[in-house]
TrEMBL record:
Xref: SUPFAM superfamilies: beta-beta-alpha zinc fingers
Protein name per Swiss-Prot or TrEMBL: Zinc finger protein
Keyword Metal-binding among record annotations: yes
Organism of this sequence: Sipha flava (yellow sugarcane aphid)
Polar residues bias spans: 12-22
Pfam families named in the record: zf-C2H2
PROSITE patterns on file: ZINC_FINGER_C2H2_1, ZINC_FINGER_C2H2_2
Length: 186
């Protein structure tokens, strides 16, 4: 709730269906486009204007600061929550704070859900696949096959834009998004 000291009182000067020009006590002009919000990127403010008729003497308008967007310092992707940004940035940094606590297992993961999925492999309830080169354990044969590409160097997923190749379709998808962002900036 906004206190009375943060509320501003305006007197209506002119109205039409597109915009509303208001005059405050200091005679400074302000324009509110589309009646209920400002779409100026330089000033992150939302203005709420109640139903207005021209015969009102005073109008109270609540000006509320929008929360600052959380932007990835590596790729510029925008997030609403800090936790989502932190999780995303681990894809760039390689940070894996979630470590398996089982003896003789030195695996670590970027997300808590990945660690939880991994711990099931220790219970023996899932079919395990063993890498023939490094003896790594995998929950499924398909995940082991993707892992094998690290050993073989196979990169079957090629970028149609630049020709770069990737081990997984997910890595290719992330790469294509970078091309799309570069195209939007131009």
């Amino acid at each position: 709730k906004i206190s009375k000291s943060k509320m501003k009182t305006f007197s209506p000067k002119k109205t039409n269906s597109r915009s509303l020009n208001l005059k405050n006590s200091n005679d400074n002009q302000q324009s509110i486009k589309n009646k209920n919000k400002i779409s100026n990127k330089d000033e992150p403010k939302v203005v709420y204007v109640p139903n207005i008729t021209t015969n009102l003497d005073n109008i109270n308008i609540n000006i509320i600061q929008k929360p600052q967007p959380k932007v990835c310092q590596f790729c510029g992707k925008i997030f609403k929550k800090n936790a989502d940004l932190e999780r995303h940035e681990r894809t760039h940094t390689g940070d894996k704070p979630y470590k398996c606590d089982k003896p003789d297992c030195n695996k670590a993961f970027a997300t808590k859900c990945s660690l939880e999925y991994h711990t099931v492999t220790h219970l023996g309830k899932m079919k395990r696949a063993v890498c023939p080169q490094c003896s790594g354990l995998f929950a499924t044969t398909s995940s082991m096959k993707v892992h094998m590409r690290q050993h073989t160097g196979e990169k079957p997923f090629k970028c149609p834009i630049c020709g770069d190749a990737f081990r997984t379709s997910g890595h290719l998808h992330t790469h294509i998004i970078i091309h799309e962002r570069k195209k939007k900036r131009k």
